[in-house]
Amino acid sequence: MNKVLFYQKGTPREQIDLWNVKLKKWYRNFNLVHLDDPTASEALIALLWKAPMEKISKLNNLKAIISLGQGVDHIINDINFSENMSVYRIVDPYMAKSMSHWVILSILNYIRDYEGYRKQQIKKIYKTKDNLDFTKIKVGIYGTGEIGKVVAKDLNSLGFNVLGWSRSKKKFSFFKSFFNKEGFNHMIANCDIHVCLLPLTNDTNKIFNKDVFSKMKNGVCFINAGRGQHVVENDLISFCGNKINLAILDVFEIEPLPKKHPFWKNKNIIIWPHVSAETNVETAAEQVAKAIKLIHSGKIPANKIDLNLGY
Ligand code: GLV
């Protein structure tokens, strides 16, 4: 029986049993084995989330990797990754919606000053604050792919003015599309809320740095649910409390965020533990099972990564 390797960092070992049951509903012709299993080296396909790539690179039979998340940086940006491997990712409308909920939650909390009113409640203060006109708020979404376009659409339906930045120009009615350096600079200089949902590639690594923060308007909100590496963390800290009114972060350069990290104590930063759009085995299993089946029959499944683009 074909072996399929499984490794999902940060989840209990039993997670493999759950995936096994859910995948087998759609395709049964394989055995799921953990990386520590002695037969792991027989696997042609690996399902991975933040696996030790050095170990993976030593598995000589491995031909294809399916990311157990939407991002593939944990696979292809690792120095041990070999380019003759084909890589696929999950593209799940459930996850896109989940991200959209989290971004909306963050933006509405910010513009309605949820935190401020909770602080007032503790002191029994019954006092209104100025209400912002949401139609005048420009929200910039950086990365308008499978996830970003859903977030943009939902924000637009809530009455926000949405701008979106991507590698190439996009045609959607629900956001104004910007691309290239000029488009990026335009959004940086004009948006009130910046939302990073980019894939992590050589081009987007450290894209939010002091040069970029310094060009933002005063008092913006910066939201990152892309990857920690999109941001130069020390640069972000130095702009928090002046240019950046509030930074809402779900991803960090090092995860879990180290206890000594200065972000923890910064009153202009809200920290989330990488939960904005988690993989849902219930909704993702069908496409992963079908991808395994297609690879086994020598075909190419959907959502193949272009290794030149990095996503
Ligand atoms: C989460 O970060 C993912 O890449 O799915």
Describe this structure in words.
With 311 residues, the chain is an alpha/beta fold. The chain has two domains: 3-92 and 279-296, NAD(P)-binding Rossmann-like Domain (Rossmann fold, 3-Layer(aba) Sandwich); 96-271, Rossmann fold (3-Layer(aba) Sandwich), CATH 3.40.50.720. The chain has ten helices and twelve strands. The chain has helices at 15-24, 53-57, 73-76, 93-111, 114-122, 148-157, 180-190, 210-214, 233-239, 281-296, and strands at 3-8, 31-34, 45-49, 64-67, 86-88, 138-142, 161-166, 176-179, 193-196, 220-224, 244-249, 269-271. The strands form two sheets. It has a seven-stranded parallel β-sheet with strand order 8-7-6-9-10-11-12, sandwiched between helices. Helix 1 crosses helix 10 and helix 4 packs across helix 6. The longest helix is centred in the N-terminal third of the chain and has 19 residues, at 93-111. It is elongated and about 65 Å long. The structure holds glyoxylic acid. Residues 69-71, 279 line the site of glyoxylic acid (GLV).
Strand order of the largest sheet: 8-7-6-9-10-11-12
The geometry reads as: elongated
Radius of gyration: 21 Å
Number of strand elements: 12
Tally of domains: 2
Summarize, please.
By secondary structure, this protein is of the alpha/beta class. 31% of the residues lie in helices and 18% in strands. It has helices at residues 15-24, 53-57, 73-76, 93-111, 114-122, 148-157, 180-190, 210-214, 233-239, 281-296, and strands spanning 3-8, 31-34, 45-49, 64-67, 86-88, 138-142, 161-166, 176-179, 193-196, 220-224, 244-249, 269-271.
